[in-house]
């Protein structure tokens, strides 16, 4: 049977958010702790208090999510109301007086926090969220120095490895439903729900099935919004330490741009403080044999994916062959890949066959790199630093073994590496800068911007425009900044009209197409989508023959904001933090231009040398197709409850 729609699940769970639309033309004057402030009709009391400069503590509230009002930590007194009201879910429709810190309110909050602590089993000192736990902060704020209502000392709830990417400890759950709202409403997946009632309530997949048996995309957004240690990434740090300490192993690490723009947050720096070159030094001091730049393989991805796009267009527009249909979808985001495998498997032929930069890198490490350096691939341990918990799942996919080995052995999140650096006694901001190692230390600015939503599209357009027109992209877009595909709109479209006069086919592509005449004056339609809820809307539009079906190329990213908002990034996250990280990424790309370094993937000399020495039959040739391309699995939304021998829905 088919899985239930996330919206229906949310309704069944009675997750009620304030749905009163804001009428910005009508203002209401409210008084918050004696301070008069005007707010738009329909604003929540929480928003009104913020305008009045008053902070109200919260736990179930998150700025990325519709409010639920389930934790009651944010209760306030409202004139005319007998009971305390949840400020996050109380819409203001008339002038009222609000008291946010009266004795009654303070005592209620203290009682609520102490009751949560009574149900909270776990030792803060051994919890991965120690020092970054919202319940811990509330306990300190409200003076919870004793367990007034008792305290569980033995686990009574489930602890499990929630699939290959996520760990769940229900003993630490506060039933805020952030994870459920994130999955159902922010991401539109609906893999989690409320199971049971009363003291047996738990947050779980359907019928408490393993996460591998339901429609979970491993994006980790639930972790980023969990206020406690109930959800964390599956930890690989001890495995990586063991490899580093094994003298028979050659341990290399590749670092992606999004973690480098965020890892400073793990050391008290402001969001958007780039740590790329300091991080290189830290990794070398920790014992990694080589430190490489994932941007190298991002550049490689652009050349392969851009070539594939041109071939698809040629096959469809000139040869009349639609076996590889358009629009072509990007394939860099493993969360998006698993989403389309489940939700829209009939569109798998639209996916680019290119592996992600992580996996291209892994395949090269255990083939070309190992052979070039006389190292047995069996002795190479390939580690990646990624912003994404889904990268753990991706590295273990059976398709990702074209080197003859598991191409990437361990995928570390930004948070995991932050802990490892702390464990090694290193304060990252104090370290000097150092370069990446050759032969994978040279990258372009296009590889850097992969970390932000729209970055893959912009990188691809920089290369495709120049290869086809023979012009510099700067002639069409100032400083090569293709701003129409930048920004945080959930889905956006852009058009690029090619000129009537086009350049010759570059030698690297001459074996694939005879000329560009068929592209004269063509308007290339592209789109950028981030977040799987937005992806669902765009896919539904394509399926219905809507506007997005007219596109030639669409970038999809599973996480809000793209990789910089990935499920393995530092906690907390919100729109302002993601914007700051994007600013760091685009700033590093601009710096490449200011210092004379390449900003386009096809200008990366190290990638061009790879084609000369190893991928000798060129982009999308047999060698690259074997190592750098793949196919995916049609999973659908059907599950089989093996224990009961019957089909059910999730």
In angstroms, what is the radius of gyration? 26 Å
Helix content, binned percent: 25-40%
Outline the biggest β-sheet.
5 strands, mixed
Quaternary form: single chain
Residues in β-strands, percent: 5-15%
Shape, principal axes of CA atoms: globular
Tell me the span between the first and last alpha carbons: 9 Å
Number of helices: 20
Task: Please give the number of β-strands.
Answer: 20
Instruction: Record the strand order, biggest sheet.
Output: 2-1-5-3-4
Mean pLDDT: 92
Which segments are poorly predicted (pLDDT under 50) over 5 or more consecutive residues? 1-23, 643-650
Which structural traits does this protein have?
650 residues; alpha/beta; 4-stranded parallel sheet; 32% helix; disordered N terminus; disordered C terminus
Please tell me about this protein's structure.
This protein is globular. The chain has a 5-stranded mixed sheet. Strands 12-11-14-15 form a 4-stranded parallel sheet, sandwiched between helices. Strands 13-18-17-16 form a 4-stranded mixed sheet, with helices on one face. Residues 1-23 and 643-650 have low confidence and may be disordered. The protein has 20 helices and 20 strands. The termini are close together. Strand 1 (23-32) and strand 2 (35-41) form a beta hairpin. With 650 residues, it is α/β, with parallel strands linked by helices. Helix 1 (6-12) packs antiparallel against helix 5 (178-186), helix 10 (294-317) crosses helix 12 and helix 10 crosses helix 16. 32% of the residues lie in helices and 14% in strands.
